[in-house]
Design brief:
- With 94 residues, the chain is mainly α.
- The chain has a domain at 64-94.
- The protein contains 2 helices and no strands.
- The chain has helices at 68-75, 83-92.
- The protein is rod-shaped, with a radius of gyration of 45 Å.
- The mean pLDDT is 75.
């Protein structure tokens, strides 16, 4: 507690009672943030909605991959014993 005591025990008779010249400082607190912030009802303008993408039907069997070595021989002009054909056969095993 601040201020003079109600019963001065050791006060000198000529001493004037002591008074506080200024009120204690008042502290201002900002309002507390809401407990649960509300989500934005619409997407933020900087983040537009992504366009809808139609997914392919995956119930059908996957087509067999073409024989890349045969394609190299047919369209690339590889001879059967060329370095390209040998490397392709070692890599893909066709």
């Amino acid at each position: 507690m601040v201020g003079p005591s109600k019963h001065p025990h050791h006060a000198h008779p000529s001493a004037a009672p002591h008074r506080a010249s200024a009120a204690p400082p008042v502290t201002h607190r900002p309002p507390a943030p809401p407990a649960h912030p509300r989500p934005h009802p619409h997407p933020h303008p900087d983040h537009p909605r992504k366009p809808r993408v139609d997914l392919p039907d995956v119930s059908q069997p996957v087509p067999k991959a073409p024989d890349v070595c045969a394609l190299g021989k047919q369209y690339g002009g590889w001879r059967g014993d060329s370095p390209e054909a040998v490397i392709c056969e070692q890599t893909y095993g066709h």
